Amino acid sequence: MAMVVGGQGIASGFRDAIGLVWRLAILCSSHQRLDYSAILTGWYRERKQQLDKSLAATVRNGDMVNTKSALQGFIRDWALCSMQCIPLWRYWLELGPRAEGPVQYAHEPGLLFLPDMNGGGCFAQTYCVAVSDMQSRVYFTDDAIFAASKKCPFQVVILLPHLEALRPTLSDLEGIEPVAPRLLNFSEAMIFVPRKSVPPGAAASNDRLYCSATAEEFGRSKLCNGRPLPRGYNEDLMWQSMIGKGYVILRPDRFVFAVCKTAAELVVAARRLEEMFSVE
Q1: How many CA atoms lie within 13 Å of 161's alpha carbon, on the beta-carbon side?
Q2: Under a CB-based contact definition with an 8 Å cutoff, are residues 182 and 145 in contact?
Q3: What is the rounded distance in angstroms from the CA atom of residue 182 to the CA atom of residue 200?
Q4: 61: part of which helix (H) or strand (E)?
């Protein structure tokens, strides 16, 4: 009943499945011997962290909604009504769980991310459009990053501060030799630039270059059909959450494996990724 009250049941089920399926896919497709027990135990430990947090929130919500005290109920209703009158507090209520920031796993032995490279957090999802055709459809960034055409389970996201940084970044990537080709391919990297840095009429021949989309563009798109208009949307959230670091390695469940400042750091993180899925 607690899970039903908090609305966490189906959400936790999806998280469990998404976190497990990519590990199983790698284990089943690998041509070398892997440590099955360690990899699957890591999934359990990660999910337990999030489940403990979700259960605690569910219990708190249930206690607040189902209070048997008339006085407590009156105070609750009066407080929530009063908060609606203060714009800053009303905005905080509208954000809901987003106000606490992205989910962040605490590192334990066997968990598949690099804590010393800011791994373990859930990557922000926003809206985007292809710079090669600014009038094209609006995408969720997740759908662009993990497109069905991608071959590798892990993906690289490059967050450029402006469009002028594209050419040197592509040059850096072209000079990198494959490091973990069965897990990660630098040629599949998706590149994002802030919308404000793209001048009107700009075009790009690179089909992996996207810019952030506005809430208004999402509202006009087919993607919004059957969905409410976004509230509290921040189109610069990806850049703000990565603290100025431009190279991100994402796991298939949208959690960050590593965040890198340079292409050289990206190579180091890729090598450590390969080591995690190998047995001496």
Answers
A1: 5
A2: no
A3: 39
A4: helix 36-65
- In this prediction, residue 2 has a pLDDT band, given cuts at 50, 70 and 90, of very low
Q: Which of 101, 98, 192 is nearest to 145 (CA)?
A: 192
Q: Which residue has the tokens 């990206």?
A: 266
Question: 180-202 burial string, b = 16+ CB within 10 Å, else e?
Answer: bebbbbbebbbbbbbbeebeeee
User: How far is 156 from 166, CA to CA, in rounded Å?
Assistant: 15
Distance (Å, rounded) from C-alpha 254 to C-alpha 227? 22
Closest alpha carbon to 263 in 193, 191, 210: 191
For tokens 């594209």, name the residue: 166
Q: For residue 25, give both structure tokens.
A: 């896919």
Q: Quote the DSSP letter at residue 199.
A: -
pLDDT digits (tens, 9 = 90+) for 213-256: 999 999 989 888 888 888 878 899 999 888 778 899 999 999 99
Helix, strand, coil share of the chain (percent; to 5): 50, 10, 40
Separation of alpha carbons 45 and 39, rounded Å: 10
Render pLDDT for 184-203 as a digit per residue (tens, 0 to 9).
Answer: 998 899 999 998 888 776 66
Nearest to 278 by CA among 182, 188, 189, 153: 182
143 phi/psi in degrees, rounded to 5:
-70, -30
